[in-house]
Amino acid sequence: MLNPIEGEIFYIDKPLKWTSFEVVKKVRARLRKRLDIRSLRVGHAGTLDPLATGVLTICTGRATKRIEELQAGVKEYIAHVRLGETTPSFDLETQVDATYPWQHISREQVENVLQEQFTGTIEQVPPAFSACKIDGKPAYKLARKGREVEIRAKTLVIDEIELVECGLPQEPSLVIRVVCSKGTYIRALARDIGQALGSGAHLTALRRTRIGDTRVEDCLSVEQLLNILETEEMVSPDRAEQERLEREREKNRAMARERKAMRQAHDKARKARQSQL
Fold first, then answer.
1. Would you say 193 and 199 are in contact if contact means Cβ atoms under 8 Å apart?
2. What is the CA radius of gyration of the chain?
3. Do the beta carbons of residue 184 and residue 75 sit within 8 Å?
4. Candidate list 13, 36, 49, 213, residue with the active-site label
5. Which CATH topology does 9-71+216-235 take?
6. CATH entry, 75-209, from 3.40.1190.20, 3.30.2350.10, 3.40.1000.10, 1.10.1530.10
7. Pairing with 138, which of 35, 70, 128, 275 sits 20 to 30 Å away (CA)?
8. How sure is the predictor about 277, in pLDDT bands with cuts at 50, 70 and 90?
9. Percent of residues, the chain, with pLDDT higher than 70
10. Does the annotation count 49 as an active-site position?
């Protein structure tokens, strides 16, 4: 039985071109209708760009308090990178703005650069087209208006980086597996790899395949989750509130028992000291 008010955590395979917030809105709307309530907290732990797919964590009710904890999990991505071209957003959201030679790059050079420059602790400047805040506003809103955006570098950890496929020397395409810490922008990683190879690069596809121990193979589609939320038995709002109050009462009773035991122990120790006088 689901208890969305007390809190549920769902893992979704986010579809291509959906924003993370669109998934949240769909889930919230379905739950509000099903439970016949006006408001319900629903959030996601770790944004995925619209052009990315894969594991997205959705929290409901009091489970939203765990979002920061869930965001901290190690993440794994499969990234498709094209060399020789850059875009302002570092992916396909914007058009190519510059081209660079790539024919000098070899597979061996790519593998060396990945291991020597992009493994362990690194510094990364997030994309201008990101949710990083500039004077309280998301950077992407300023970037889309053509404003200059300056973002400070952040310290990140790349636990693993592996060249999975290489189109060189015929095609300037790479497929890379990345295991990294919270806050890593794979689009910015593609940009930096291109620069390190003496060229340019941008992301052409991205899939988040794991968060912590949860793999994309274990995730639900949006349609599957919405169907579950429509058909599964749920704890009613009244019952959820009753259960919450009972837990609070039991917590208070436990605290009272603990305080009583401490007083008794204190009194026993005091009497023992007095008897020795």
1. no
2. 25
3. yes
4. 49
5. Pseudouridine synthase (3.30.2350)
6. 3.30.2350.10
7. 70
8. low
9. 92
10. yes
